[in-house]
Design goal:
Structural class: alpha+beta
Number of helices: 5
Distance between the termini: 26 Å
Helix content: 25-40%
Number of strands: 8
Oligomer: single chain
Strand order of the largest sheet: 1-2-3-4-5
Shape: globular
């Protein structure tokens, strides 16, 4: 897996040793539901997420270099079984960051880093994403990185709390030279 970095952030694979840290941040009831998943119940669940969901070449731990700690996740992949109006083979991007690190520009920095990697190493022409309308901060992160609202909203009952909160859809079109 490719490791990517800026001055503050390292995007790296998830390791089993990250399970306790992942649980500490992913069990926060203010974190997961904003991203569409329930808070983690125990360290064993967090370890299983690392071994399965996070175990691929396009999902990274967001490590704060200053502390060496995984403080969030970011990645892209198939558009999943969600109701976003993805084009054929258009990957979905997703991310989350631990609450103590909100509003510090870390997620925007990590997303820009991942998008640059995708743009320079793949032939992917566009990406899709969305955020629950009650989480506008996530939308601002995407917009700072070039995503544009499509004008679509959807309800996604496959997402945790999805039947209750509309999702605002955004897309990024890569311009290839």
């Amino acid at each position: 897996m490719t490791t990517l970095e800026t001055k503050r952030v390292l995007l790296r694979p998830w390791y089993e040793r990250d399970a306790e840290t992942l649980f500490r941040y992913a069990s926060d009831p203010d974190v997961g539901p904003r991203a569409g998943w329930p808070p983690h119940k125990n360290v064993e669940e967090s370890l299983e997420i690392i071994r399965t969901l996070f175990h691929n070449d396009t999902t990274w731990a967001i490590e704060l270099k200053k502390t060496g700690e995984a403080i969030g996740a970011i990645g892209y992949g198939p558009s999943c079984e969600c109701n976003l109006p993805a084009r054929t083979n258009e990957p979905l991007i997703g991310y989350w960051i631990a609450k103590p690190y909100w509003n510090q520009g870390i997620c925007t920095e990590a997303l820009r880093l991942m998008l640059n990697h995708i743009h320079t190493t793949t032939d992917i022409p566009s990406l899709i994403s969305g955020h629950f309308i009650d989480n506008p901060a996530s939308g601002r992160v995407m917009e700072k990185c070039g995503f544009i609202a499509t004008g679509d909203t959807c309800i996604d009952e496959n997402q945790y709390l999805g039947k209750d909160i509309p999702i605002r859809v955004l897309r990024l079109e890569f311009v290839k030279p």
